[in-house]
Amino acid sequence: MNRASRPTRFPLGLDRVVVKAPEARATDPIRPQRPLQEAAADARRQALPTGVGLDSAGVRTRMVSRLRAEGVADEIVLSAIASVPRHAFVDTALVVQAYEDTSLPIGHGQTISKPSVVARMLSLLMASPYTRARGHLGRVLEIGTGCGYQAALLSHLGRHVVSIERLRPLHHKARELLEPFRRHNVRLVYGDGRVGHAPNAPYDSIIAAAGGDELPQSWLDQLAVGGRLVAPMEGSHGKGQVLMVVDRFESDWIRSVHEAVNFVPLKSGIA
Ligand code: SAH
């Protein structure tokens, strides 16, 4: 079902908007009162990113302020986060938590990552000297589409985004959830992201939302010279997962290891 046609139970004000619109019109002697559903549909349309929703935009702005206070300094990343309604990508029952800094279930044993971790990974990608010079992420490969939230953010930060998902129901769900946002620079692919996606390679930016024991060779091969990859990966000496950054130069791939993270596993094959 298209999310735009779902009953909105957004707890932080949209319900109030839905109810108030017809009341205001009821006092207008000239214009007839519109049906409640029509007003509700208007409110939902307003929640979409093009005409960003009243209160949902407010909570998003507050989330962005919190991220900034916690040290996220990349204003381009923050403005992408401010413009994509995270609540549109989670289940209706979880909408109340959509702007908390927490990962949330998206079905099929998978999760949408914490906003602070998403912001951190996108900031690491943006901080590459080549990306800074270019001003955007260029051609992007995302492994692990999940519900499509991060793909939506990437579409604001890159020129073209290819996002791969190995679970067919999630691939379809992401397509449905992204559809109202009309991000025409995003291509969703159903497949095993461990092999990357050769038809659109090389990529200036590669980001993985699932962590394996090692980085697949295909990702390193499909990274453009001057490109950067950010991925969770099992650290050495059983230290648990860490964020790994790889920069590709003419003949070298330089790795750097960052903080501990906790992502779902990178799996083989499709399902
Ligand atoms: N970026 C996502 C987070 C999804 S969680 C979002 O914003 O919602 C990680 C996703 O990686 C899961 O959906 C999981 O199915 C997927 N995944 C795990 N291994 C994969 C693989 N080999 N290829 C593609 N996707 C994979």
Q: Topology of this protein?
A:
Elements: H1 14-26, H2 36-46, H3 54-69, H4 75-83, E1 104-107, E2 110-112, H5 115-126, H6 129-134, E3 139-143, H7 149-157, E4 160-165, H8 168-178, E5 186-190, E6 203-208, H9 217-222, E7 223-234, E8 241-248, E9 253-260
Parallel strand pairs: 3-4, 3-6, 4-5, 6-7
Antiparallel strand pairs: 1-2, 7-8, 8-9
Helix pairs in contact: 1-2, 3-4, 4-7
This protein binds S-adenosyl-L-homocysteine (SAH).
Q: What keywords describe this structure?
A:
alpha/beta, binds S-adenosyl-L-homocysteine, globular
Please explain how this structure is put together.
With 271 residues, the chain is of the alpha/beta class. 34% of the residues lie in helices and 21% in strands. The chain contains nine helices and nine strands. The protein has helices at 14-26, 36-46, 54-69, 75-83, 115-126, 129-134, 149-157, 168-178, 217-222; strands at 104-107, 110-112, 139-143, 160-165, 186-190, 203-208, 223-234, 241-248, 253-260. The chain has a seven-stranded mixed β-sheet. Strands 1-2 form a two-stranded antiparallel ribbon. Strand 6 (203-208), helix 9 (217-222) and strand 7 form a beta-alpha-beta unit. It is globular, with a radius of gyration of 20 Å. The structure holds S-adenosyl-L-homocysteine. S-adenosyl-L-homocysteine is lined by residues 106, 110-113, 143-144, 146-147, 149-150, 164-167, 170, 192-194, 209-210, 264, 266-267.
